[in-house]
Amino acid sequence: MRPYILYIKKCPGVESPRHFKIGVAALDKARTRIATYQNAVGPVWEEQFIKIWAGEDIDIKEAEKKVKLHFKEKISSAEAGLSEWICDVDMQEIIDFVHELRDDYFINLIDPPQELQPLTMPLCEDLLEWWNSLQENDED
Amino acid sequence: MASVSKTKLKEQRIKAFLANYATQFDMEDSAIDLRTMALNYPNGIIPSDDIGDAVSAVLGASAIPRGSVDPRKLKVPQFDWAPMSDTGVDPRFQRDVAPNHVGKIEIDFQPDMIIVPCAIKDPKTGKFLLWDGHHTTRVCDRMGWSHIPVWYTEADINDKHSLEEAERILILKAGRSFLTINKKNKRPVSNYDSHMISVECGELEAVTVQRIVDANNCQVRKASKKAGDISHIEHLYGSYDLVQASSGIKGIYLARSLKFHRDTWPKEEVRGIMMLAMARLYQQTEMQTGVLLPADFDDEFGKILKNPKLYGHSEKVHTRLKEQFENHFGSLGAHPVVVTSGLVLTYLKHNTKGYKLAQPESTFPVK
After folding, report:
1. Per-domain residue ranges of chain A
2. Residue of B6, B307, B314, B316 to mutate, interface with A, max A Cβ within 10 Å
3. Among B62, B65, B171, B217, whose CB has the most other CB atoms within 10 angstroms?
């Protein structure tokens, strides 16, 4: 089992966004993933995942699939680079559906501490430490 | 350089086409959902032109205007009722004849239910050399038919083509046609289509399976996306086929298994392997203990499986059970055996109500 994160990201620098990208990344590669996005925007903006959930790979990947399916009508294009953008929605709608996945679909999605969100590159090591401590506590 | 990609153009064509319909339906390269498309027509019949337009929306418009070619004037292919004695086979462009296949299709033979065989007309002998429908022809022969319907192509023998050239061209055509029809462009009927056609044509077994599916608020779908969707038709029939020893009846365990799945994971699609594994668990337990597990067992076991410390959603249950089997034995076994055994072992480890289950077919450590 490899830990993953489900993330929501907005367009860089946009206030009151209405378009959101949904995606997944291995939890220990979250920093690399943000760095990829950072590379595209350069120093004028600090890239971030505005909302994340952590969990086992199978839970996170299933959640991503379900979110994309649920918001299929809001994904305006299958073009590369656009097929993961849910357009013209309130972010709370996506968050509510993720909560529904946890409560009604029994997909185990764990909220990281508030101080780790939005997730930026400097916080990624803290995220990994938090996850490891969670696993140690579970084993105890 | 194109400013709009081919992918985007296709999206735009499909969107424009679907705008004509109140009931939306899936339009993919691999399948246009005609069953749902038909809901837009009062009598359920989709005009051929509309299906043609749907195909063009996916592929792009044809360069040839609709209806602009009258194939009757082309004279290819031609049609004839050929005397059986005037037909033959040139093994250069035919496979061996399989008597067991002839026997198989002979069982279902009906005079009005045959595909018209295809042939080339040999310029030397005048015989119709079959490149498609040879097995059908053999059955017709065994049914005593004196003639067989054929679509055939004839060589145009003139100054340009000698007899030998004409024969060579026809043989090449026949060989290519045989391979194109039987191999390259063969599209087998999917289990989904087979089930749906059987239901709608009133085949008894398919209708019974469908009734069980309906009774549990499920739907058979080509691809499962929504709550209660079932797309694994092989496992659906595999679950149905499990016979209750005491009554000799099929379908009881499918019904129980679907109810379990829907009650436990009401918002999830029905996972084929979970459906089959639970049906097997019920059957094996009843065979070995004489007791059909009660609803109280379903309730307890559902809670065990949904416990986030153990599994959660249905997809996770069977995936993790397979992983645990593989970790223990080093390779994966037959999925129904692995998942059924894993489910039994999980219940035995975590239950509090003590229902007796069948012996697991395989034993390995589970969470």
Report:
1. 3-139
2. B316
3. B171
Share of chain A above pLDDT 90, in %: 77
Mark whether B217 and B336 lie in a shared domain: yes
Token duo for residue B182: 């039987």
* Residue B242 and residue B306 in one domain: yes
Q: Is A28 helix (H, G, I), strand (E, B) or coil?
A: helix
Q: Identify whether residues B204 and B331 lie together within a single domain.
A: yes
Shortest Cα distance, chain B CAs vs residue A19, angstroms: 19
Note the pLDDT tens digit of each residue in B79-106: 999 999 999 998 888 888 999 999 998 9
Our count of domains for chain B comes to: 3
What is the secondary structure of A85-121 as a DSSP string?
A: EE-S--HHHHHHHHHHHHHHS----BPPPGGG-SB-G
Q: For residue A95, what are the contacts with CB-CB under 8 A and spacing of at least 6?
A: A8, A51
Quickly list H helices, B251-334.
252-264, 272-289, 295-306, 314-329
Q: Of B120, B153, B184, at which residue does a domain stop?
A: B184
Supply the pTM of this predicted model.
0.82
ipTM: 0.88
B330 and B231, same structural domain?
Answer: yes
| Cβ–Cβ under 8 Å, residues A51 and A7 | yes
CB contacts under 8 A, A 31-90 vs B, are 56, 58-59, 62, 69, 77-79
Alpha carbon distance B319, B306 (integer Å): 14
Summarised one tens digit per residue, pLDDT across range A52-106 is 999 999 999 999 999 999 999 899 877 778 888 999 999 999 999 999 999 999 9
Could A78 and B11 be called an inter-chain contact, meaning their C-beta atoms sit closer than 8 Å? yes
What is the percent of chain A where pLDDT is above 70? Answer: 99
Residue B68 domain-assigned?
no
Same structural domain, B229 and B318: yes
Q: Which residue segment(s) compose the domain that B43 sits in?
A: 6-59
Three-state secondary-structure class, residue B207:
helix
What residue type is A99 in one-letter code? H
- Most confident among A12-21, B121-130, B255-264 (mean pLDDT): B255-264
**Chain A contacts of B268, Cβ < 8 Å?**
105
Q: What single-letter amino acid sits at B349?
A: K
Q: Is B131 in contact with B119 (CB distance < 8 Å)?
A: yes
* Cis peptide leading into residue B77 (ω within 30°): yes
B121 and B199 together in one domain: no
Reading the block at residue B312, the tokens are 């959660």
Do B21 and B53 have their domain in common?
Answer: yes
Instruction: Report yes or no on B104 lying in a domain.
Output: yes
Q: β-strands A3-10, A51-56: how paired?
A: antiparallel
Is position B313 within any domain? yes
